[in-house]
Amino acid sequence: MTSTRATLIQVAERAGVSLASTSRALHGTGASKAMVERVRAAAAELGYSADAIGRSLRLKKTSQIAFAVADIGNPVYVEIMRGIHEVLAPHGYRVVVMSTGDTATSTAELIHSLHGGFVDGMIVIPLRTDDELIEQIGQAPVPVVVIGRAMSDRGISSVSTDSAAGIGAAVRHVVSLGRRRIGFLNGPLDTTPGSSRQRGFDEAVSAKDFSAEGTDVEVAADFTVAAGIEAARKLLDRPHRPDAIVAANDLLAIGAVRAARERGLSVPRDVAVTGMDDTELGQVFLPRLTSVSLGSAERGRAAARLMLGLTEDADAPAQQISVGTELFVRESTVDQNGEDAE
Amino acid sequence: MTSTRATLIQVAERAGVSLASTSRALHGTGASKAMVERVRAAAAELGYSADAIGRSLRLKKTSQIAFAVADIGNPVYVEIMRGIHEVLAPHGYRVVVMSTGDTATSTAELIHSLHGGFVDGMIVIPLRTDDELIEQIGQAPVPVVVIGRAMSDRGISSVSTDSAAGIGAAVRHVVSLGRRRIGFLNGPLDTTPGSSRQRGFDEAVSAKDFSAEGTDVEVAADFTVAAGIEAARKLLDRPHRPDAIVAANDLLAIGAVRAARERGLSVPRDVAVTGMDDTELGQVFLPRLTSVSLGSAERGRAAARLMLGLTEDADAPAQQISVGTELFVRESTVDQNGEDAE
DNA sequence: GTGAAAGCGCTAACAA
DNA sequence: TTGTTAGCGCTTTCAC
């Protein structure tokens, strides 16, 4: 950790040519073969690497994109980040992680911090999307892509997924399995995911081909296993116990499985359980969770691609990408071979 | 996304004072109260925010720290990153995520990229630590903190954890439960975690107070559930089947539970299983996994603190922090109330 | 206490 | 093709 970095001026002196020629020979165009050769050699001898800051100042481009999220650590967000990184890294962009979690920073503050000019754009997953946020994004000095609700009608590029449709798929799946009473285990209704999933359930059970006998709804305090256990107990203790529980995410679904086991109920025999997000957690759970994938990595990739477009033309019209959902059927709804399903 | 950012010069003009005074009034010292007032007002009117790049160039400080890891997405790494972020963010540092995963970039290349000068330091978790890597780190133009093996004797600040001792704790735990035959389910031996955990197991079973009847060892192809199932099957199919399996991480432990269920064995009654890393995955698994915490978040925090020290004095002597391990006893070894333990 | 000016490392417009 | 020079936005000597 002792070596000092060489500057372009030093390379120029070493090569015995001008600063401009040196710059051109290394990055730009219009340098003779001999010049390139000469400068390259000098640069190599000095172990030269272009200074990112000097370059940024001149080019007005940081080659950095921020990824802002409430709680880095949430498996779904991590998966999204992976997708973002996968697309941006090959284009020379670095990903700066910003989190509202550990400091008392709000999403609005994160967006405001963009005025510092340390990134060329921001991909954000807001917990709630209200008018104030939309306003904030409109004021942002760099392109912002939102993952969550569709917002292109408000002039903001966004990536969404039809979680409502995903809930519908889960409901139809358990009904097709012959389940008669469907419980819906949702998270807080005042969140974006909570409200859209509720809508999905309501639509699914009011469809004319919905053939089950009845439904029950329980709202957990948040999207965690603990809250899921709590709420699932209530669901299972209803006079007419559900024989299927559609949960709004995998953590709630795991809570539902636990609550069922507490009561000596077998999953999926007595009660089928579905999750949402298709996390690794759910995939290795016992029983493996039937879950609706919202294409997390793909949402990240899509957002990153939108961002790449915006970095080229910040005033391009707002785009809107919807990533499809997919139901993965596993042991928590279908006893696949009887030996390890419960 | 249309607003343009004001520069310090504009603020100076607006306030009708010099550039120097403006800068001093906003950040520095030695400005009169009236001046501060005046400049603040002008800055507020223009919505001024200092440009991070111009500032960096002048101060030779980016306020960014890189976090480099093979595979962002690994839950353990995510937890570490959370710890890092938690410590660095309040100090005004941003965290830049670098991953060797999706591009063909090696750890060595990531370290080399530090010559670009876009961060003030790097926290890295190398997959393998050989002499070449140590050499590379010695050449790095900014402070580097390694999470993994202890390396302060090589002049590199590092954070480690005694996973060998952790395996020992797990072994003693199952023995204290009265288990007679202990199986060790390890991951690849040519990795840093694999080799130290093997050492831990060997030491534990050769201790003179080790009172079990026998041991078996199986090495999985990698640290995943699938590989764990595979290797655990072999362990369970031995002539003298183990009544306890100590796994080298939570994913392998989950594989062991699965393999046991396949054979109609009950966990923990027929076979007790322990994991390592104490991931959320293990905590919500069914049965909840007894696991040895290696203090992931704390390792991240410790590394971040070391880094903060190094940013103040890059030539300070290399420090070495060891984060303690802790055994969390849960349902996979102790049937806690009979109702939901398996 | 305040202002003028230099310069961090780089690229690009302009001149030769 | 090559060199000279200005300037990106900022902080900090240095004079006053």
TrEMBL record, chains A, B:
InterPro entries on file: HTH_LacI, LacI/GalR-like_sensor, Lambda_DNA-bd_dom_sf, Peripla_BP_I
Entry annotated with the keyword Magnesium: no
All residue ranges annotated as the HTH lacI-type domain in the record: 6-59
Gene Ontology MF: a single term: DNA-binding transcription factor activity
Pfam families: LacI (PF00356), Peripla_BP_3 (PF13377)
The entry's keywords: DNA-binding, Transcription, Transcription regulation
Protein name per UniProt: LacI family transcriptional regulator
Species, as recorded: Amycolatopsis echigonensis
